[in-house]
Design a protein that fits this description.
By secondary structure, the protein is mostly helical. It has helices spanning about 1-65, 70-80. One of its GO terms (biological process) is cell division.
Length: about 100
């Protein structure tokens, strides 16, 4: 009768070990999925922020595109970027500005 009890005890230990491994495996899987979920949520927020930035840039460029044929816009760009002036205007250059 002792032999039967030992087999039963050994079988129970194996069963408990199996159940314990199953629980730990399940907890580990749940923890890893939670971490991945948090990482994906963070990445989704970063992508959404980038999308918002690009949409603002698109709106700015559309506004520029609408004004690109306007004479006042062309004149402002020529004055700003090309340093162009009208015939009756004078250009004053601050020579002290470059020494600082």
């Amino acid at each position: 009768m002792k032999q039967r009890r030992r087999k039963s005890s050994f079988g129970r230990k194996i069963l408990w070990l199996f159940l314990l491994l199953l629980v730990f495996s399940s907890l580990r899987t749940w923890y890893m999925q939670e971490q991945e979920s948090r990482n994906l949520a963070r990445e989704e927020q970063q992508v959404q922020d980038r999308i918002d930035e690009l949409e603002k840039e698109i709106q700015r460029l559309r506004g520029t595109l609408e004004n690109i044929t306007d004479d006042a816009y062309i004149e402002s760009i020529a004055r700003k970027n090309l340093k162009m002036v009208k015939e009756d205007e004078w250009v004053l250059v601050d020579i002290q500005h470059g020494k600082d």
